[in-house]
Each structure stands twice: as structure tokens, then as C-alpha cells.
Write a structure and sequence with these properties.
By secondary structure, this protein is of the alpha+beta class. It contains 19 helices and 7 strands. It folds into 3 domains: 3-111, Gyrase A, domain 2 (2-Layer Sandwich), CATH 3.30.1360.60; 127-280, no CATH class; 298-307 and 320-459, no CATH class. A 5-stranded mixed beta sheet has the order 1-2-4-3-7, with helices on both faces. A two-stranded antiparallel ribbon has the order 5-6. Helix 9 crosses helix 10, helix 11 packs across helix 13 (312-322) and helix 16 (371-381) crosses helix 17. The longest helix is centred in the middle third of the chain and has 56 residues, at 242-297.
Length: 461
């Protein structure tokens, strides 16, 4: 079935064109905000060929399609609906319909930590392709130099290879604050350009003229600054006379709001990022294998909820401050536990359809993209999901004990080995997760009839 056919079936089961208010796409899933949640046929959605699972979080329905297919289906659906991915239609009844659909649980969710993590994830997820690409270029540069395949005199296209890879791999990191501020402003309801200015202010070299340090506060500071300026601009546009808004709103936002960013939010961002980084390091240093066991074992539920990317700024801040993130390799064991659990299911089941699902999802699972295995295999069977968490926990303990750190952010799984400082010990952690996940799942067993019963998953309602 091609992406357009899948998109048409999804639209029909989501309640038709008129029921789709907004649509977003991430690496593995299509996120849809329906006008009337009751009109969505979740069991029928799960049966569409190509769909790995369906998750309802509050008033949003997430259709798990897997890497590559998710974007193709999103593009096809956008063409059918004549709606850009990530662009919401306006409707006077939207807020009331969403409120009625989600009920009081939605209100609680919007005020809770999960919603904040989701918002932070929405800021960083669009940046991940560029961050991952840059990280892989940095890894390639490192590998080629260590293997003596390039040196200071090697030239490509008439220019020196090492500086070329440096420019391609490191440029985005220097300007990441601008992109983070831009997305944060958009997420909190303001113009992206206003948030970009907030991020640019924090890394401006002219801060030295004010006796300030460029980049102080890091990406967490940029996140806070972008969100604040976006919110501040929106409040001004509501309060000012319409005829003066176009002039006064930007002026006051940058003059007053920009000053607040510099003298209040920049220090807040600095101390907050320093505290978070120190806490994460201290947790791993003091807790050691125990902390690694707990953190890795509990990470899969975050992936299941689609909010795990909300931890991206913590990884980036640790890299900025200490040169590596020891947290990322620990959490990467969650995907390895999944692989071990899936192998156990494959070896134990005689269900041909289930085996085909596992074979299709395993390659990307080994490369670090775990959603197809979660929603296609382990979560519907449930006990293998617990086995995967157990496998992840043991691998996380090994990684924390070994003190493995990632030099940059990239996909997890075996490819993260290109970015870590202790490659052999990282592979040891993966092996332990594979074996522990396999054994735990084999011993826990599973009921294959649950594959037919598990049509959707709902969290927060």
C-alpha cells in the first residue's frame, strides 16, 4: 500500500477531513489533533496496513508508522487535506470541542510536567535532523583522523578536509540558540522571528561590551528566553490598540522584553542549566550502576509517550559544560533492551504475522529507533515490554559503571558508538541489554492473543 492510500484510510478513520484540526509529523509518528475525539475510530486505525500502533495522549491521537513512512504519509495527508504539516486551521469552536473531548484530564495534563516535556520536545524535535547530521559529521571527522585516512594536508574539492568537516559539523552548534529560541517562541504562541532574536541576543559577541559573557545560560537559557519573548509579544498584541500594534509590539518586545532576557532570564538560565547538569552528573556519579539501572529501566515509558526528546537540552548542556553527556548512552540502553525482548518473542512465537512485524522493525531498532518495536511488538504483548525495560536497566547499570559519555547527540543503538568516548564498553552495555532483555522476556512469556486485542493505547484520560 502506498503512502497516499494509507493517508486516505487514516483520514477516514480519524473522522474525515472536517474532524482534523491540526497535524504534525515527527520521526516515527503522525500526531493529529481531532476536533471531536469521539469521532475517531481507534480500533480501525490500528488495522490500517503500515500502522504500528495508536496512542491517545489527552486530546491528541498519535499514529505510529515508523521512520520514513511517517513523513511520506504526512505529506500525502497534507496534500489531501490541503493543510501544511504542523499548521492548524482556525475554528471558533476549537477550544470548546477540545475541552469537551478531553474533559478534566486534559486540563490536568496541560498543567502537568508531561505537557511541559511535550512542549520542550516540540522545540527540539524539528532540530534533530540537523543536530544528528552535524554529530555524525563530527564523528566521521574523528574516525577518519584516527584511522589516518585524512590529515592536516588532505584536501577535498580544493580545500583542506579537516576544516571542511569542522565547518559542516560544528556550525549549527554555534547558532543553535537562535533556532531553539525561534521554535520556543512558536510553541508558546509568538512569532518565530521574535524568538530567534532572543536566542541571538544570548550569543551576541557584543555582550562583551556590557561586561557579559556570550552564550551564558546555554540552550536552556535560549529556550526560556524564546518562550518568554513569544509570550510577551502575544500579550502586547492583545493589549495594544490595533493601529499601533505593528509598531509598538515589536519595539516594546525587544526593548523591554530583551532587557528582561539579558538581566533576568540569562542568569536564571545559567543557574538552572548549571544545576540540572550538576544534578544529572551527581546522580550518575553517586548512584553509579544503581542510578544507571533506574534511569535506563524507566526511559522506555517516556519513549512510549513520545516525550523523550524533552531531555535533549539536558544532553546539549552537559556537552557544552563538560564535553560529553554521560546520560545519553545510559538511556540508549532502552532501545537495546527492546531488541533483546523482540528476539525472544521471535524465537518463541510461531505466529507468522508477528514474526514478519519483528523482522521489519528489528533493523531500525538495532539502529536506535525503538517505536516500531514498542507499538508493533512489545507493548501490545505487554510482558515483553517489561522484559525490555529490565534489559535496558541492566545495560544502563553497565554504562553508568563504565562512565561512557557521548561527544554529541545522534541516533542511539549501535550507531551511537561513533559518538562515544569508550566504544568497547558501550558495546558491552548493548550486549548486556540484549541478553538481559532476551532472558527476561523469555522467562516472563507472553500471550499472543493480546496482539489482536491491543488496538490502541491511551494515556492521560
Amino acid at each position: 500500500m502506498d503512502p497516499e492510500q494509507i493517508a486516505r484510510q487514516l483520514i477516514e478513520r480519524l473522522g474525515g477531513r472536517g474532524n482534523i484540526k491540526a497535524m504534525e509529523c515527527c520521526m516515527t509518528r503522525l500526531r493529529v489533533d481531532p476536533r471531536n475525539l469521539g469521532a475517531v475510530d481507534q480500533p480501525a486505525l490500528k488495522k490500517v496496513k503500515g500502522v504500528k500502533g495508536v496512542v491517545q495522549t489527552g486530546g491528541q491521537v498519535q499514529v505510529i508508522l515508523g521512520p520514513g513512512l511517517a513523513q511520506k504519509v504526512a505529506d500525502a495527508a497534507a496534500a489531501i487535506l490541503q493543510m501544511q504539516v504542523g499548521e492548524a486551521e482556525t475554528c471558533p469552536e476549537d477550544m470548546e470541542m477540545v475541552r469537551q473531548a478531553g474533559g478534566a484530564a486534559n486540563a490536568l495534563r496541560s498543567a502537568g510536567g508531561r505537557d511541559l516535556l511535550k512542549r520542550i520536545a516540540n522545540v527540539f524535535v524539528p532540530l534533530l535532523p540537523a543536530i544528528i547530521g552535524a554529530g555524525m559529521i563530527m564523528a566521521l571527522n574523528n574516525v577518519l583522523q584516527k584511522a589516518n585516512l585524512i590529515n592536516a594536508e588532505t584536501t577535498w574539492f580544493g580545500v583542506k578536509a579537516i576544516p571542511l568537516l569542522g565547518v559542516l559539523g560544528s556550525t549549527i552548534m554555534g547558532y543553535l540558540s537562535i533556532l531553539v529560541g525561534m521554535n520556543a517562541s512558536r510553541e508558546w504562541g509568538g512569532p518565530p522571528a521574535i524568538g530567534a532574536v532572543a536566542g541571538a541576543i544570548l550569543i551576541s559577541p557584543t555582550l562583551a561590551d556590557l561586561g557579559m559573557t556570550s552564550g551564558r545560560g546555554g540552550l536552556i537559557g535560549a529556550l526560556i528566553a524564546g518562550a518568554f519573548l513569544g509570550w510577551f509579544y502575544r500579550q502586547l498584541t492583545r493589549a495594544l490598540p490595533e493601529t499601533l500594534t505593528i509598531i509598538l509590539a515589536p519595539l516594546i518586545t525587544l526593548l523591554v522584553g530583551g532587557s528582561i532576557v539579558l538581566f533576568v532570564l540569562q542568569p536564571v538560565g545559567f543557574y538552572l542549566s548549571s544545576w540540572i547538569t550538576a544534578f544529572a552528573r551527581g546522580l550518575l556519579n553517586l548512584g553509579g550502576p544503581v542510578a544507571g539501572f533506574i534511569l535506563a529501566g524507566l526511559f522506555l515509558p517516556l519513549v512510549m509517550l513520545g516525550i523523550h526528546q524533552g531531555l535533549t537540552p539536558i544532553h546539549m548542556e552537559m556537552i557544552n559544560q563538560i564535553g560529553v553527556t554521560p546520560l545519553l548512552p545510559v538511556l540508549a540502553m532502552a532501545g537495546a533492551g527492546q531488541v533483546g525482548a523482540a528476539f525472544a518473542v521471535y524465537m518463541k512465537t510461531r505466529n507468522r504475522d508477528l514474526r514478519e512485524v519483528i523482522l521489519a522493525a528489528l533493523p531500525v531498532g538495532i539502529l536506535g529507533i525503538g517505536e516500531p518495536l514498542i507499538y508493533g511488538v512489545t507493548l501490545p504483548l505487554f510482558r515483553p515490554f517489561i522484559g525490555a525495560c529490565i534489559g535496558a536497566a541492566f545495560g544502563g547499570a553497565v554504562i553508568a559503571w563504565a562512565g561512557v559519555g557521548a561527544l554529541s547527540i545522534g541516533v542511539s543503538g549501535v550507531l551511537l558508538a561513533l559518538l562515544v568516548d569508550k566504544v568497547g564498553l558501550y558495546f558491552l552495555g548493548i550486549l548486556v541489554s540484549y541478553v538481559a532483555g532476551f532472558i527476561a522476556t523469555w522467562l516472563l512469556g507472553f500471550d499472543e492473543s493480546k496482539m489482536d486485542e491491543a488496538t490502541s493505547f491511551s494515556f492521560g484520560d
